[in-house]
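Quick one: structure tokens for this chain, please?
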Amino acid sequence: KKKGGAGFGMRAFFQQSARCLGCKAVIHTKPSAAASSGATSDQQQHVDPGLCERCLAEDDTRKAVQIAVTAEASDAASKVCNAQSACRSCHSGGQLGAVVCENGECPVVYARLSGERQVATAEHKLLRLERLDW
């Protein structure tokens, strides 16, 4: 008998809601038809807006958030590049091959994996901002 899942335990009581990238206020959105029909296509995937109505109305806030998120993405990508170059100099896969390092004691591996997660988060934030009508 399988226990757990999205409808059991603490997950049954809490829902994650989208927050404004500027002021961190909760953004209330209506579920889209694609999300409610269970479509899993990448093109039909529901993406929450990046800014609330109040921050969207302020031109300076929109620009500041766009610059901050772009800088965050750039810093994360730089961190990944630095960690990958350190990993490539250490492992036997050469300079052009994929980095397949799983050394549990190496701090560079953890920095590389953390940087990859930060890049994914920053790219998602940029996707949320692209959804907005500037």
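The chain is about 50% helix and 0% strand.
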